[in-house]
Amino acid sequence: MRILITGATGLVGSEIVRQCHAQNIHVNYLTTSKDKLVSKTEYQGFYWNPDKGEIDLNCFKGVSAIINLAGASIAKRWTPKYKKIILSSRVQSLQTLHKGLLEFGSEYIKSFVSASAIGIYPSSVGNYYTEEEQAVDNSFLGEVVERWEQEADQFQGFPFPVAKIRIGLVMAKDGGALPQMTKPIDNYVGSAFGSGEQWQSWIHIQDLARMFLFAVDNTLSGVFNGVAPNPVSNEKLVKKIADVLKKPLFLPNIPEFVMKLVLGEMSYLLFSSQRVSSKKIEETGFSFKYTNVCPALQEIYGVKSSSKTSEMGLKKEYSS
Question: What count of other Cβ atoms lies within 10 Å of the Cβ of residue 81?
Fold first, then answer.
């Protein structure tokens, strides 16, 4: 089996590639940097330039599934110029893939899975969102995800199933939001943001990569939330990170206006709240390895705990 992956060198893409190779699945990947082209049987790189709609059609040879992860990071200051890059990188990548498939032919493609984000859901402390929700968050991020999914929907004109995975807070040691949350805690200046009541719908990176491959293997169609079954509040998450790192928390919560001064509009990421359900993907037969945040953090930071301690941690999570 051979899968074409866009964004293969990013945080999530790298883990998907690792799991593919562990299962003897070969990977074709697209890159905008010719310096990153590798030519191996199990890992073959191809050049593309979505800004210009350019793509090497050879990337589709031997491919039976496509995973789309392409898109500029949202974890950079949202200047007017960079906001255009965030949106265009997602839309143009999908448009270029679509154009390439029309030219090459799609008869051998059995599955198409595209990344999306839970940022499409309106920020709310009280709501519990499923994939049936129609409302879209009235924010830049909500606008981006809506356009992103609309572009992915264009692939429904092909004969293969199209799945969209709305990714939550990805828990990983070497990238994403977790290291940024961990750093101040590790330096004794960690604290929750705002009220700390905002929900963090998280997922361990291993489970997220497994979910993408599960969607491919089972030719899933439709929207699925890429989150673990038990979201936690921002305050609870900060406390659990501190517990795992064995660091004290003694500073008051950081007010929203302070982070707006520091990060500008991007500070919205720290204060928006989406409590999101994982029930739909579980009903397809997908099983999470990390359903609770304590074991997930312990695995990420290599912390061993006794079964009694783990059991107590789980009880605290379910009661919080």
Answer: 7
Beta bridge partners of 43: 27
Location of structure tokens 């990420």: 300
Q: Is 202 among the domain residues? A: yes
Q: What is the pTM of this model?
A: 0.93
Asked, for residue 217, whether it belongs to a domain, the answer is yes
Sheet strands (E) in 7-148 = 26-31, 43-49, 54-55, 65-68, 111-117
| pLDDT tens by residue, the chain, 320 residues | 999 999 999 999 999 999 999 999 999 999 999 998 999 999 999 999 999 999 999 999 999 999 999 999 998 899 999 999 999 999 999 999 999 999 999 999 999 999 999 999 999 999 999 999 999 999 999 999 999 999 999 999 999 999 999 999 999 998 888 998 999 999 999 999 999 999 999 999 999 999 999 999 999 999 999 999 999 999 999 999 999 999 999 999 999 999 999 889 999 999 999 999 999 999 999 999 999 999 999 999 998 754 444 444 444 443 33
Euclidean distance between CA atoms 227 and 186, whole angstroms: 26
Residue 136: CATH number of its domain: 3.40.50.720
Which helix H or strand E contains 62, and what residues bound it? none
For 39-131, list the strands marked E by DSSP: 43-49, 54-55, 65-68, 111-117
Domain containing 214 equals 2-226
Written as six digits, the tokens of 284 are: 């397809």
| Six-digit token string for 177 | 């939001």
Strand partners, 199: 233
Q: For residue 95, count CB atoms less than 10 angstroms from its CB and return exposed for 0-12, middle for 13-18, buried for 19 or more.
A: middle
Cα distances from 148 to residues 5, 88, 142, 162, in angstroms, run 17, 9, 10, 13
The answer to whether residue 233 is domain-embedded is: no
> How many independent structural domains does the chain possess?
1
Task: Report which residue type is found at 203.
Answer: I
The phi and psi torsions of 131 (rounded to 5 degrees) equal: -65, -10
User: In this structure, is residue 283 part of a structural domain?
Assistant: no
How deeply is 279 buried, as exposed, middle or buried, from its count of CB atoms within 10 A (0-12, 13-18, 19+)?
Answer: exposed
